[in-house]
Design brief:
The two termini are about 15 Å apart. This protein has helices at about 35-45, 55, 65-75, 90-110, 130-145, 165-170, 185-190, 195-200, 230-240, 255-270; strands at about 1-5, 15, 30, 50, 75-85, 115-120, 150-155, 180, 210, 210-215, 215-220, 245. It contains 10 helices and 12 strands. The chain is α/β, with parallel strands linked by helices and about 270 residues long. Strand 7 (about 150-155), helix 6 and strand 8 (about 180) form a beta-alpha-beta unit. The model has no long low-confidence stretch (mean pLDDT about 95). Helix 4 (about 90-110) packs parallel to helix 5 (about 130-145) and helix 8 (about 195-200) runs parallel beside helix 9 (about 230-240). About 40% of the residues lie in helices and about 20% in strands. The strands form 3 sheets. The protein has an 8-stranded parallel β-sheet with strand order 8-7-6-5-4-1-12-9. Strands 2-3 form a two-stranded antiparallel sheet. It has a two-stranded antiparallel ribbon with strand order 10-11.
C-alpha cells in the first residue's frame, strides 16, 4: 500500500466566502500554504497528497505552478475532496456544477480520485426521502467523476445525515458510489470502523486514517488515540484493497509536519510488523 497525507492540517477547513451567496462557488478550502503543506508531507516520506477542491481553484489560472510544486517535491496529487448538501432539489444543479468543476480540476492536476462528503441535516429534522435524494445525487457525482477518468467515493462525516452505522447502512443500497471510510469520523458516529470496512469490502475505493480521543473529543495522529488501528488495517487488507492509505488530521495543536511524521512512523511500523 502507498501512503499519502491530506493538506487540511495546514490551516483547517473553511468554505469559500463567495459561496455564502452563490452555492455554485462554495468550495472547501484550507487557508494554510499549499507549498508548505506539500513540501512538509514529502519531507516526511509520504508519496501522495489530498487537497480540497477550493485550493485547486486557486491554481486554475496557473496550473504549471502546482504541477511544478508536486514534481519538485516528488509526490502526486492522489485525491480531491469536495461535498454538498445534496438533498435540496432547487440548489442541486448548482452543487453538481461545482462538483463538475472540482472533478475537472482534479483531472487537470493528475488526481485519481474524487472524495465527497455531505447530506445536509435539516433544521426541522431529517426526512425519510433525504437518503433517497442523497443516494441519487451521489450516483450523479459518480457519473461526473467517471467522465473525467476519476474514481468517486463517499466519506461519512460528522454533521451530515451519514454519521453512524445505521445511517451508512441506510444509504449504501441507494447508491453505487464507492466507500471512503474515515476511521475517526465513523468511530465518533458510533461505528466500529473495521466492522464497516468488513461489511462493504467490495465498495472500498479510498481510505482516510485518523485516530480519535473521545473525552475530551478530538482527532489525533495515528497511534495516539483509542482506535484499534491494527484491526482496521487488517480489515482493509482482507477486503483486497491494496492502494492509497491517506492519513488525515483535521487540526493539530502544534507543528502539522510533526503530526504527519508521528503518523508516518506508526504506519510504517504497523505495515511492516
Amino acid at each position: 500500500m502507498k501512503l499519502g497525507y491530506c493538506t487540511i492540517t495546514w490551516g483547517g477547513v473553511v468554505g469559500h466566502p463567495v459561496g455564502v451567496t452563490s452555492v455554485k462557488d462554495l468550495f472547501y478550502m484550507t487557508h494554510g500554504s499549499m507549498e508548505t503543506a506539500v513540501k512538509d508531507i514529502a519531507s516526511v516520506g509520504y508519496e501522495g497528497v489530498e487537497m480540497f477542491d477550493g485550493n485547486l481553484v486557486e491554481y486554475a489560472d496557473r496550473p504549471e505552478e502546482l504541477r511544478g510544486l508536486l514534481h519538485e517535491a516528488g509526490v502526486s496529487l492522489v485525491s480531491v475532496y469536495t461535498g454538498a448538501n445534496f438533498i435540496y432539489a432547487d440548489i442541486l444543479p448548482d452543487e453538481l456544477h461545482r462538483i463538475q468543476r472540482s472533478a475537472e480540476l482534479a483531472a487537470t492536476f493528475g488526481a485519481e480520485r474524487l472524495v465527497v462528503g455531505g447530506g445536509a441535516r435539516r433544521a426541522a429534522g431529517t426526512r425519510d426521502e433525504d437518503y433517497q435524494r442523497l443516494g441519487e445525487a451521489l450516483d450523479r457525482v459518480a457519473d461526473i467523476a467517471e467522465g473525467f477518468g476519476l474514481s468517486a467515493s463517499y466519506h461519512p462525516h460528522l454533521s451530515t445525515i451519514v454519521e453512524g452505522p445505521d445511517e451508512l447502512e441506510r444509504l449504501m443500497p441507494l447508491t453505487r458510489i464507492g466507500f471512503c471510510p474515515d476511521t475517526a469520523h465513523l468511530a465518533a458516529g458510533g461505528a466500529d470502523p473495521a466492522a464497516m470496512i468488513r461489511k462493504y469490502p467490495e465498495r472500498l475505493r479510498h481510505v482516510h486514517l485518523k485516530d480519535l480521543r473521545k473525552d475530551p473529543f478530538g482527532f489525533l495522529p495515528l497511534g495516539e488515540g483509542v482506535l484499534d488501528l491494527p484491526d482496521i488495517v487488517q480489515a482493509i487488507k482482507e477486503s483486497g484493497y491494496d492502494s492509497w492509505l491517506m492519513v488525515e488530521l483535521d487540526e493539530y495543536d502544534g507543528d502539522p509536519r510533526a503530526a504527519a511524521e508521528i503518523s508516518k512512523k506508526y504506519l510504517d511500523d504497523l505495515l511492516h510488523s
